[in-house]
Structure formats: C-alpha cells, structure tokens
Design brief:
The chain has 741 residues and is α+β, with helices and mostly antiparallel strands. 26% of the residues lie in helices and 24% in strands. The chain is built from 18 helices and 28 strands. The protein has a 7-stranded mixed beta sheet with strand order 4-6-2-13-10-11-12, sandwiched between helices. A 5-stranded mixed beta sheet has the order 1-25-19-20-21. The protein is globular, with a radius of gyration of 27 Å. The structure holds dioxothiomolybdenum(VI) ion.
Length: 741
Amino acid sequence: MDMSQPIGVTPLDTQTGGPVGRPIDRVDGPLKVTGRATYAYESREMKNPGYGFVVTATVAKGRIRDIDTASAERMPGVVHVLTHRNVPPQGEKKEQVGPLLTGTEIRHAGQPVALVVAESFEEARAAAAAIRVTYDQDKGAYVLADALAEAKKPEKARTPPDSSLGDFEAGFAAAAVTIDARYTTPVQSHAMMEPHATIAAWEGDRVTLITANQMPNRGQDALASVFKLPKDNVRLISRFVGGGFGGKLQPQADAILAALASKNLNGRPVKVALTRQQVFTSTTRRSDTVQRVRLGADRDGKLTAIGHESWSDTTPGDSFFETSANVTRSLYAAPNRLTAHRLASLNLLPASSMRAPGEAVGMLALEGAMDELAEALNLDPIELRIRNEPAEDPEKKVPFSTRQLVPCLREGARLFGWDKRNPKPGSVRDGQWMVGHGVASAARLNPLQPAKARVRLDPDGTLTARMAMTDIGTGTYTILSQIAAEMLGLEVAQVRMVLGDTADPMSSGSGGSFGAASSGSALYMACEALRGQLLAKTDLNPQNAVFTGGRITSGNRSAALRDVIGSGLEAEGEIKPGENEKKFSQYSYGAHFAEVGVDADTGEIRLRRMLGVFTGGRILNPKTARSQAIGGMVFGVGTALMEAVEVDPRFGTFVNHDLAEYHVPVHADLPEIDAVFLPELDDKTNPLKSKGLGELGICGAGAAVANAVYNATGIRIRDYPLTLDKILEGFTAKETGQRRA
Ligand code: MOS
C-alpha cells in the first residue's frame, strides 16, 4: 500500500485491551542485561577470524609519500597488511560510502591508510604501530568562519537548498522590531556506546558482513557498488546495534576494510572494530555551522519577515550539508521568507547526519532568535509563538496533517509552572545560583520509507516476523512485537521478531525518525494479510471481526485461532510513501521547558529541571517513547552546555576524540527530566497513525536551555556550547559596563 489517502478506521482503533499503547518492558531487555544480545564484534558465527586494526592518516591534506610495511609484516601473528598498493579493485562511491585506500591522496586527518590483519587483536595493534607512513603535506583549510565567502550552494540536494517567498529584504527593512543574530554551533560527534565493528567473509563472489549498521538495505546497496557486485551478493546482518545517532547510517571503514582484507585472504573472516578515537576521527561527524537568523515583526509580535541562512562544511568532493534552515520553512507564519544553505569545502572528516540533521542545530539558532524577539517586543515567548501559528504550511501551502504545537506549549507551561517565571533576566537568586527559565518549540519532519515484512503463523499459535529492520537501542523489537501481537490477538511472548538480515524482506532500517512508522506499517500490512487468510478459513463476518485473546470474534460467534491456522500460514506486507507526503505537511511537535542555575561567581551552569511535552501521533509504547524523547532532550542539554569537537586550526586534527574529553551529559548533569505526550492520531502518516519520535526530543531542547541561561543571567551566548568561560566573559562585560556607567 502507498500512503496517498487517509488510512481510515483500523484494528488498532477498534480493538481494545491489546498490547499497542501499553508501556511494556523491552522484549530484548533480558538479553541485553545478561550479555546474551550478540553485537557484531562478539559474533561467533564466522570461524577462525583474523583481527584487523586500522591505521589512519596523521595529516589532514597531502599525499602519502611512502608507506613502509616491511617490519610490520614480519611481526608475530601478522597475516596481511592492506594498503592502496594491494587493495582489490573497487567500484563507485554511493550514498556517501566510498571506496577506501584508493590512492595516495589525503583529504582529512583520520583517513584510513592501511589495515593490519593478525591472529589476535593485540598483534594487529602492535604491528599497526610499526607501520611507517611519510607524507607530503599541503596546507589545508579547517575553519568554517574563514571559508564563508567561498562556500557554494550545494549541488546534490534532496531538498532545495534555498527558498524564498514574498520579499524578505523589503519586509525585514520595513519591520517595526527586528532581530539580526549570528549563531554558531561546533563540530559534534555521535558518541554512541558501541564503536563501529564488523566481521566480514567471502564465499566465492558473495560477501557477508555481520556489522553495526542502522540501515542494512542501504548499506547493502552502497557496498554492492563499492565491491562491484550485484546487490544480492552482499549480505549485511545487524541483529543488535549499540546506538547509532546517524553515525552508523552508512557502512564505515570497519566494514569496507574488513571485507577487502577478507577478499585478499581468500575469504577468511576478518573482524575489525574501530577504536573509540577512530569513531571520532575516521567515521563521520555533525558539521559545525554558522547561521544568520533575521526576524522582523510588527509591534504586536506578528512576524512579517523570517530569514534563516546556514553555512556548513564537509570534505572536498563530498556533498552532505546541514539543512539547518529547512525547519524554518514551516514553523512560523510570515509573509516574507528566505532560507539558504551554503557548503564550504574543508579538510575535515566527512560530515553526515547526526540525530535530527537540520533541526537539531537549526532550532538552536531559530529558537534563540525567537527568544530575542520576544524580549525586544516585551512579550512572553510562548505568546510570541502562539501569535505566529500558521493556518497551513507557510511555504508548501498545504495543510498540516496534524499540528499541536500550541497545545504542547500551553500544557507544558501549565505542568512546568511557567506563570511563576520572572521575565526580567538576572532577577531570581537561590543562594549562589542565578536561576532562569527558558522555553523553545520542538519540530521534526515525519518521513515514511518503503518497507516490507514477512510473517509466519505456526500451528502452535506463535508468530515469527522477519525483515531487515534494526533496533539500535530504540525499542524496535518491542514495538514491532506489540503491533504483531495486537493485530492477531496474541500475547507479546507469542511473537518472535527476526531483524537485521538483508536476506529477509527489505526494510527502512533506523534513521530519520522513520523506523517505527515504516517497519511497523509493513508489519501491520503483513498481519492484515494474515488476518484475511485466517478469516477466509472461517465463516465469520470479516467486517466486524476482532482478534483478541487467541480468538477471532464476530458478533456472538468466535473461533480459536489455533483451530484455524492448520499447518501454518504466511503473508507479506509492504508500505510505500505516497501522495500524502506532498498533500500534507508532516511534522512531530513539542515544547521544551528548562530551568537552570548559573553560579554567580564561577559561571558554572547546572540544569535544574527540564520538561518536554510532545505529540507524535499514536504512541505505540509510552515507555520506549518516553525514553526516546528524554534521550533526545539529554542530547539537547549536551549540545547546549558541553558537546564540541575542538578542531586544531593549525593542523585540522581533532584535539578531543574520546569520551573523557568529548563531554556528554551524565546522570549527575540531569537532576530532573521528564517527557509527556499529548493524545494524537494522525491518519495521513501511516497505517499506525504514528509519527517519528527518535529525533523530536533533541529539536529545540538546547535552545530552551540557552534561553534559560539568558533568563538567569541576562547574558546571551550565541556560540554553542554555553561553557562557563563564555559566562565569565559576560560577567566581565557587565561589570565593565557598570563601571563605565
Ligand atoms: Mo538518524 S541522524 O537519520 O540516525
């Protein structure tokens, strides 16, 4: 089925008491906490593997002059050293998945230059350290702020890089109140728990990779191109993935190099894990951005002009750009509008998607600027947003499928106690702490991806579902089990999900907040087909048949499922995006509320409490949904207060590249945090009437924290993250100003 019409009434609406919508525990929880969930590097499915260790470039731009592998090759246990000199022939780069070791050119520090394979990990690592690489080094470009003038309009863009409506410049010039603000955000790293890892082996002209990957089918496509194989000759298996956040959307060096080395070793399995440092330096990153937001409003706070321009960067030859301003095209009403994206070419690690690419950093700027405008207007920031609520998508000129931004703001204000906030910055004290409150909107695009699923109902009443979907820690195994159980009237324990293998039906994988909707809808369709088969074997009226408690019931008659199954039944289901994508503007929405304390002497910022109120269509499992929302908010807190990869502007290397020095929030940083969902069903999105949640929680979260810091101190920091040195500069500037006055 494709989504070109509203879905109508479904069994998920009419059947009551089933597992969908219940906060059940994760079905994979026991496997995880007892260590029986097998991650890629732990797999023992492939026997006698060689252990690979990646060697990476220490310069950011130039050429390999020489790579001396002789002493490494003589070291104990070494079975192979793979470099550009002996790498098997490779095909074309696809979906940002490039051939590796293709020559001597170095485009960024951390670029893989060799792989050592040995009988043990330790032997491989020791030999890797013995490889001598010398470079002819060129001067590279590493600083976005210095490259703005040369930045180009991105060429290969899925969405148009620019948009305009009305006359922005004239509207902005004529506005009664204006904000013209430049925000900057740093390079970020996904910092997932599990470093990238793969075990790969060839059999003839077929290669299998057990790998940590978010989207195995896309990975299969891309690797087929790189290895010059028909797609069906490449198999990816990702049963358990220890987080991704976008960093595992594409196969990385571990996968490509493990497979290439295995090929050179006549198919012997090769396993490669990246070190924590290599995850930072040799996979992908979120680009730093420079953003200019211009807002013009009348005295009543109605926006007359809204402009958002964004600059980001990536490695020479790459095309990914951060779509920071896309969300600005739909969030608020205004007759005169402008958005633009420019991409600079820097000798840094390739940029790619990181949780809520676009919105996550775009809303730091937009929602900060909205806070600035509210203050300039002497208007409550929630009221400002309410006054600019659009009746339809302001640029696409189509209705919203559902949009509850205002209810989220209002309910959040009530739950958080927004009415007790003092709007005057720097006026609330709690001992040494300057206390402040901030708000920001949340919005994240709701996409649907093509997906298929196959289900089999066995005579004992157990259901097995198969698809190349992944669970990257989000709860996919659980919500899919709930959907199948509900559709067929089974217990969740009677459902077995087999995920992560491209030998099974194609699925969306996990990314872009489309995973649950896409894979869940395919599973729903497969179960719907199975219901049809079962009903056809009874004389029950299909119009009002209900599947619950292991029985099919219609009116006052019913049949036990087991009596109908026979020798077993199979069905397939499929979902595709359709016209509803174009006919409706589809976003998940929410509102963030943050309270911070800023130490009046040291400038230390502590989050005191945080609340998110969200809508995401049907909530399939309130427990896993809440975890996703809170996880996103935690990401937002990190973005606001601590996360940054520091690029050395002299050498283009990353100064911090581990979890000791790339700071992410820990429990002690998050004293009180909660997420709640308002009821919603969206019949335009997918058969489940759900919307994406994985990335919604980060969108706007950091801005709410930054706006709270402003409310606490009167210091507006537009350069993320907000670290105490920047607060101290603000204190100093204030003191100097006071002394002058
Ligand atoms: Mo997401 S950044 O598409 O994993």
